Amino acid sequence: MFKIKEFSSEKFSEFLQQKMNSGTKSLCFLIGGAYGFDKTIYEKSTAQLALSQFTFPHQLAKLIFTEQLY
Fold it and tell me: For residues 60 and 15, is the Cβ–Cβ distance under 8 A?
């Protein structure tokens, strides 16, 4: 199991830039529901990212994540 990553906005931008510079062809971000994901999703993932230690409604989490990508 790997550590859940939390970034500041600047560090997240650096993380994305590093992925682009390294030749990563695609990234897939999934936003979990109230009960998270099935264990098979966790087993197949290469990293986990936390938007915050707070809990957000699903729709708000999508908005926050979209803002960070923008």
Answer: no
Angle at 67 between CA 61 and CA 70, to 5 degrees: 140
State pLDDT tens for residues 2-45.
Answer: 678 899 999 999 999 999 999 988 889 999 888 888 999 989 98
**d(Cα 30, Cα 32) in Å, to the nearest integer?**
6
Three-state DSSP at 49 gives strand
The kind and range of the H/E element at 5 are strand 4-5
Q: Which amino acid is at 63?
A: L
